[in-house]
Write a structure and sequence with these properties.
The protein is of the alpha+beta class and 81 residues long. It is built from three helices and two strands. A hairpin with an 8-residue loop joins β1 and β2. The model has no long low-confidence stretch (mean pLDDT 83).
Length: 81
Protein backbone atom coordinates (compact mmCIF):
# COMPACT_ATOMS: atom_id res chain seq x y z
CA UNK A 1 0.00 0.00 0.00
CA UNK A 2 1.40 3.40 -0.95
CA UNK A 3 1.83 6.05 1.71
CA UNK A 4 -1.24 8.26 1.79
CA UNK A 5 -3.39 5.56 0.23
CA UNK A 6 -6.43 4.69 2.33
CA UNK A 7 -7.01 1.18 3.62
CA UNK A 8 -9.98 -0.56 2.06
CA UNK A 9 -13.23 -0.12 3.94
CA UNK A 10 -15.57 -3.04 4.54
CA UNK A 11 -19.17 -3.26 5.68
CA UNK A 12 -20.04 -6.43 7.55
CA UNK A 13 -23.76 -7.15 7.74
CA UNK A 14 -25.54 -9.48 10.11
CA UNK A 15 -28.94 -10.66 8.93
CA UNK A 16 -31.44 -12.23 11.27
CA UNK A 17 -32.59 -15.20 9.20
CA UNK A 18 -35.27 -16.08 11.76
CA UNK A 19 -36.94 -12.69 11.44
CA UNK A 20 -39.58 -11.97 8.84
CA UNK A 21 -37.99 -8.54 8.44
CA UNK A 22 -34.45 -9.81 7.83
CA UNK A 23 -33.04 -6.86 9.78
CA UNK A 24 -29.42 -6.08 8.97
CA UNK A 25 -27.00 -4.81 11.57
CA UNK A 26 -23.81 -3.36 10.10
CA UNK A 27 -20.22 -3.06 11.26
CA UNK A 28 -17.69 -0.80 9.52
CA UNK A 29 -14.16 -2.21 9.31
CA UNK A 30 -11.12 -0.36 7.91
CA UNK A 31 -8.41 -2.56 6.42
CA UNK A 32 -8.18 -6.20 5.47
CA UNK A 33 -6.10 -7.13 8.52
CA UNK A 34 -8.73 -5.67 10.86
CA UNK A 35 -11.47 -7.44 8.92
CA UNK A 36 -9.73 -10.80 9.32
CA UNK A 37 -9.14 -10.11 13.02
CA UNK A 38 -12.79 -9.14 13.50
CA UNK A 39 -14.16 -12.21 11.72
CA UNK A 40 -11.79 -14.67 13.40
CA UNK A 41 -11.40 -13.12 16.84
CA UNK A 42 -14.67 -11.39 17.63
CA UNK A 43 -17.08 -13.49 15.58
CA UNK A 44 -15.21 -16.80 15.88
CA UNK A 45 -15.26 -17.84 12.22
CA UNK A 46 -12.73 -20.52 11.33
CA UNK A 47 -9.57 -19.41 9.46
CA UNK A 48 -10.30 -21.35 6.25
CA UNK A 49 -13.74 -19.74 5.90
CA UNK A 50 -12.32 -16.27 6.52
CA UNK A 51 -9.54 -16.85 3.98
CA UNK A 52 -12.08 -17.99 1.39
CA UNK A 53 -14.27 -14.94 2.04
CA UNK A 54 -11.30 -12.56 1.72
CA UNK A 55 -10.34 -14.16 -1.62
CA UNK A 56 -13.91 -13.71 -2.81
CA UNK A 57 -13.86 -10.07 -1.65
CA UNK A 58 -10.74 -9.40 -3.70
CA UNK A 59 -12.36 -10.86 -6.82
CA UNK A 60 -16.04 -9.92 -6.52
CA UNK A 61 -15.94 -7.07 -3.98
CA UNK A 62 -18.47 -8.93 -1.83
CA UNK A 63 -18.64 -12.22 0.03
CA UNK A 64 -21.19 -14.12 2.08
CA UNK A 65 -20.51 -16.33 5.07
CA UNK A 66 -23.54 -18.44 5.88
CA UNK A 67 -24.70 -20.09 9.07
CA UNK A 68 -22.93 -17.84 11.57
CA UNK A 69 -24.89 -17.93 14.80
CA UNK A 70 -24.67 -14.96 17.14
CA UNK A 71 -26.67 -14.69 20.33
CA UNK A 72 -28.33 -11.45 21.41
CA UNK A 73 -25.54 -11.15 24.00
CA UNK A 74 -22.92 -11.51 21.25
CA UNK A 75 -24.58 -8.71 19.28
CA UNK A 76 -24.64 -6.46 22.36
CA UNK A 77 -20.92 -7.07 22.99
CA UNK A 78 -20.24 -6.27 19.33
CA UNK A 79 -22.29 -3.07 19.66
CA UNK A 80 -24.96 -4.34 17.25
CA UNK A 81 -27.69 -5.30 19.70
Amino acid sequence: MNEGQRAPEYEVGFTDQGSMHGAVKMAQINGEEKLVSFLRGEIGIDPATVESAVRELRIRRQALIHDVVLSDADLIVLGRG
